[in-house]
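User: Please predict the structure of the protein below. I'd like the answer in structure-token form so I can feed it into my own downstream comparison script.

Assistant: Understood. Taking the following sequence of 222 residues as input:
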Amino acid sequence: MTALFRYHTAMLLRSQRWLPPVLLYAIFLAVGVRSGEPVLDSLGVAAAALLPVAAWLVRICVTQEPDAARVVTAAASGMPRAHLAALLAATACAGALGVVGTVVVTAISDPRSADHLVTVAPLPAGTAGLLAALVCLLTGATVGALFSRPLLRGRGWSLAAISLFALLALVTTGSPAKAAVTGLVTGSRTGVIHTPGQSLAAAALVAAVAAAVVCVLGVRRG
């Protein structure tokens, strides 16, 4: 699995197909985050921005391998392991991006509540921001996995579905990503830091189930 993970990661980095989603993330942060803004609000924006980026990176990773190479990889290691390695490579790259974004946002933001009456400790705030980013990362990876190969092959339909469901994951009540981001924004109003433990557990469970489904179906549909 380690070799497969390195293979997919190296292929992603060499292809430079990661540039558009990374630029999208940078644009989201440039537009949505301002130096001196309340830290929890800014961390909420950074976490939310990671969701569509993670979904996009997953789609890139599971479709970047030519069909002939995919057949060879599957024959050597098994289709489920090969597909899982692609999912993990995309998730890891998106996670690294989220860590960098969260650290930068924490460093440039105002460590106070929105009304400037309560000081928010940067370390706990950054930790909560990282956990919220992880929730959004897992949710985005789930969206990308479910609306890419092998379940949805058409490029246009896949991108449209990923865009739609990434948006829905951020605004739909009951979504772990919405709950995590809302917790940060609400905490910015009160000065109380909310750790999204339940949201993280739910997002991890859904992501694990989605990964299992697409890896198993990959054996049948290729």
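That's the full token string. Residues 79-108 form the longest helix (30 residues).
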